[in-house]
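User: My instructor asked us to take a sequence, write out its structure as C-alpha cells, and then describe one feature of it. I'm not sure where to start. Here is the sequence I was given:
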Amino acid sequence: MTSATHSNEPRGAINNLLRLEGLALLGVSVLCYARSSATWTQFAWLFLLPDLSLLGYLLGPKVGAVCYNALHSELGPMLLGAAAVLGFVPGAALPVALIWAAHVGFDRALGYGLKYADSFTQTHLGLIGHARSAALRKAAV
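Assistant: Let's start with the prediction itself. The C-alpha cells for your sequence are:
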C-alpha cells in the first residue's frame, strides 16, 4: 500500500492503549531484570542490539521489514524467556530475553510498530517520522 496511511491504523484511544501496553512491557521487563542477578552494564550493552536489524533496509524495504519485525516482535523475547525458564537454554538467556522485551516495549511506547514491507515509515501503530508529520499537516488543511 502506498497511501499516506493504512486504513486500519489505530487512532485515538486505541493508539494510546497500544502505547501504554508498550510502556507496561518496558516497565515489567526492567523490574524483572532488576530482580535478576544480571548486571546493568549487560543491560546497557544489549538494549539497542535489536536495532541492528535496521541494516536490513540496506537491501530494500521488504528485507528491512522482515529483519526489523523479526527482532521487534514480542514473540522472540517471550519464546527465549520461556525456553530459559523451562531449561531448554541456559538460564543466562532469561536476562537477555528481558532486555529484548524491554527494547520492544520501549519502541512500542514511542510509537514504533512493526513495519509494513512497502516503507519504513508504515507501521502497525501508524506512520512515523517525516511521513507522519506530512500526513498531519495535510489533514489540518
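For the description part of your assignment, you could build on this observation: The mean pLDDT is 88. Try explaining in your own words what that tells you about the chain.
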